[in-house]
Design brief:
By secondary structure, the chain is an alpha+beta fold. The chain folds into two domains: 19-97 and 107-184 and 335-454, FAD/NAD(P)-binding domain, CATH 3.50.50.60; 191-326, no CATH class. It is built from 13 helices and 20 strands.
Length: 460
């Protein structure tokens, strides 16, 4: 069978009719912080909105990966984003799905509890939910997108829409619709994380050990795989960072030499003994390659078990702990990015970029590609609408971590709160375009900005 498969380069599928199961004003594909914010914003602006998601819950990296530190960058002098992203945090707090975050003045979101928070927000806004459907192809008329093909347990189906927002995180729709995108080689991409949590931790012993040997952001770059460029002000600030238990485990032969660079951060430790948002295991792979993802899932879980054994042996408070859960899938930071009408630059995020077409603000928080700069001085930049506007495809906006820009700008806009900022802007822009009958490239920016402000977003 293997030899036969090697001889066949491709097969021809028979032509088929695909049922159109829904027509709507706006279709948002992907429900991470960007897609969820986009759908809520558009529905609140008065257009019928469908939110399509391949998994069984909304929330993307929050709920499916377990990245609970939604605003861990926030400090007393931070001028932070407002709008739906902050609403995620406040609603989670109100619904008992958040805990104080140890390194900032923010709350971590409980990955499991936020599934219910997201459901509630979707229902309240009147968004039409469509879980368990995977986008597989755009429906095109020339250079204009008219909807998407999905597949699920129900088979192959079509959804038509006046406008589409690509919030897939990998620019899947834009790429398959023919919009120009680019992707760095794997050895230049940001790492992929396997998130996990532990239970049975003695909180008092754990916290006492952390206080007895406090780690800083400067420690990230000492004796490990990372070379971190900071502004200097970060170097002495507390970080919930762990490397020493893994170094001891390596010396004791508990972990193999292949994971000698293991290190990372923890999120929260509850009174019940849950140690969550453990970001210790890092892989390098292409998140758009299913074979690489398969290897990464399996290799990452194996690494996580090494990490747990190291913590049990060498981290006070973890002696009787065990694995509680893995994230549902890998945490991908970096794949495709669109070539947008405007591509953001390092100067935009490092030098407080200002734009007439701003749809929101984000503090000067840069985390990735060797940079770590925390927003402790009140500096912030504008997120421009044009960075979500792909070239070559009409009726499509792209939001979330894949908006147009260079490496350093991506290290800022990829963060979940900024994805929510971009998503809210995309959702309002789509609603404005649909109501006015105008193309995304010719939409009334002042109308978009007025509606964003009405929704509580800060745009300047």
């Amino acid at each position: 069978m293997g030899n036969l498969a090697a001889m066949i380069a491709s097969i021809s599928e028979p032509a088929r009719q695909t049922d159109v199961i829904r027509e709507t004003d706006l279709l948002v594909v992907g429900s991470g912080p960007g897609g969820l914010a986009a759908a809520l914003a558009a529905a609140r602006a008065g257009v019928e909105t469908v939110l399509l998601e391949r998994y069984g819950c909304f929330g993307g990296n929050i709920t499916q990966v377990g990245v609970e530190g939604f605003a861990w960058y926030r400090h007393p002098q931070t001028i932070d984003s407002e709008g739906i992203g902050r609403e995620f945090e406040e609603r989670a707090k109100a619904m008992g799905a958040a805990m104080p975050e140890p390194q900032s003045i923010s709350h971590s979101l409980d990955a499991e509890g936020f599934k219910v928070v997201a459901d509630t927000l979707v229902e309240e806004a009147g968004v039409i939910p469509m879980l368990h459907r995977l986008f597989v192809a755009p429906i095109m008329e020339g250079d204009t997108i008219r909807g998407v093909i999905v597949e699920s347990k129900a088979g192959r189906e079509a959804i038509l829409a006046k406008c589409v927002i690509d919030a897939t995180g990998d620019a899947d729709i834009a790429y398959r619709a023919g919009a120009p995108t680019h992707k760095h080689p794997v050895d230049e991409m940001m790492s992929v994380s396997v998130m996990f949590s532990m239970c049975g931790v003695n909180k008092a012993r754990f916290i006492d050990a952390v206080k007895a040997d406090p780690q800083t952001y400067g420690d990230w770059a000492v004796g490990g795989e990372w070379e971190v460029i900071t502004s200097g002000k970060e170097d002495e600030m507390f970080s919930p960072f762990l490397r020493k238990p893994f170094q001891k485990a390596l010396e004791a032969g508990l972990i193999p030499d292949s994971v000698k660079t293991m290190a990372g951060t923890w999120g929260t430790v509850s009174d019940q003994g849950d140690l969550t948002y453990l970001n210790m295991c890092h892989l390098y792979l292409d998140g758009t390659d299913p074979d690489a993802l398969t290897h990464g899932e399996m290799a990452g879980r194996k690494q996580a078990m090494y990490a747990i054994n190291a913590l049990k042996s060498f981290m006070p408070g973890c002696e009787d702990a065990k694995l509680r859960n893995f994230g549902m899938t890998l945490g991908i930071r970096d794949t495709r990015k669109i070539d947008a009408v405007y591509n953001m630059t390092s100067a935009d995020v490092l030098e407080q970029g200002r734009f007439e077409d701003t749809i929101g603000i984000f503090p000067e928080f840069i985390d990735g590609y060797g940079y770590l700069i925390l927003p402790t001085t009140g500096r912030y930049f504008h997120v421009p609408y044009r960075s979500m506007l792909p070239k070559g495809v009409k009726n499509l906006l792209v939001t979330g971590r894949v908006i147009g820009g260079d490496k350093v700008s991506h290290a800022a806009v990829r963060n979940m709160m900024c994805c929510a900022v971009a998503g809210q802007g995309a959702g309002v822009a789509a609603a404005t375009a649909i109501k006015s009958g105008r193309d995304f490239g010719d939409v009334d920016m002042h109308a978009i900005q007025r509606e964003l402000q009405r929704q509580g977003a800060r745009i300047s």
